[in-house]
Fold this protein.
Amino acid sequence: MIIFQTFLLAAMLVAAICAAAFRDLMNAVIACALVSLAASIMFYFLQAPDVAMAEATIGAGLTTGIFIFAIRRTVRQEEDGESS
Amino acid sequence: MGKALSLVVLLVLALGLASALRGPSIGAEANRGELLDDQKVNFGRRYNSRAVEETGASNVVASVLVTYRGLDTLGEVTVLFVAALGLAVLLHTGRDRKSGKEAEPPSLIVFTGCRFVFPLILLFGAYIFMHGHLTPGGGFQGGAVVASGFLLIYLGCRGRQPHRERLNAVESLSGAAFVVIGLIGLAVGGSFLLNFLPQGSPYALLSAGIIPVVYVFIGFKVGCELGGIVGDLSGARR
């Protein structure tokens, strides 16, 4: 169980660093959702199932959707920057 | 008209906030700093040991959220409401904006799949907030699950949007019902959100007095509110 939790924490760290480092905003949003998903599993193991459910639905589900809608409404400039 | 109305709403909110800040503080004893650290720890232990017999809810988190700290939950719901209101004011500036390029319709498989899964998600959300006093979860979590169902509809079934007026009506009515339940407690027993219904036997579906009732209303309110936020941001016309 300790191994699994360590793996979860490592995955959260990697995903958080990726979210900050990715140039494409859509990939960064997916990385953020991964952080929330791992955090909700960690909350479950820390015996806080209420918080785990809130984190899974709001953090990993709704926030991702709202970010995707917001990115879709803006101009995506990353592609121009990478191609030039 | 709309600007005047929002100014009036803002003024009423500011007046209410000012009068609340001038009046006697709520939960005064705990706020004065008279409690020592070990007394605060005992406060938490007291909830854990006596919440089930005092409120009849087997989920101690629910009993803390709805009865012991019910006013804080009302504040949370109000914060969410103000956030949704501000978003709607920002995103709907009066002119009916038609999006220039119409998004291409989803494929038949996505459309049918979303329509099939949507009622199941609603059912699961309703299950979570109806059993909030028995199992982990509650109004907020169940409402968020319902709103993720709306998110699925907005993403996968373009052209079949939820009826926004009905969403807003359900949201407002359930928010008002929450306050009315609190006021009934004030009228019956002299404290806001008093648990005035019979507790019943613990671990039964109909138990714990007002907790399941309040949680059902919170679930409806949060679900419709977050669904409305998602709908506003998705750019669907009202």
Summary: Residues 61-90+107-238 of chain B form one domain. Chain B has nine helices and no strands. Residues 56 and 208 of chain B are 4 Å apart (CA to CA). The interface with chain A takes residues 59, 61, 128, 136-138, 140-141, 144-145, 147-148, 151, 154-155, 226, 229-230, 233-235 of chain B (CB under 8 Å).
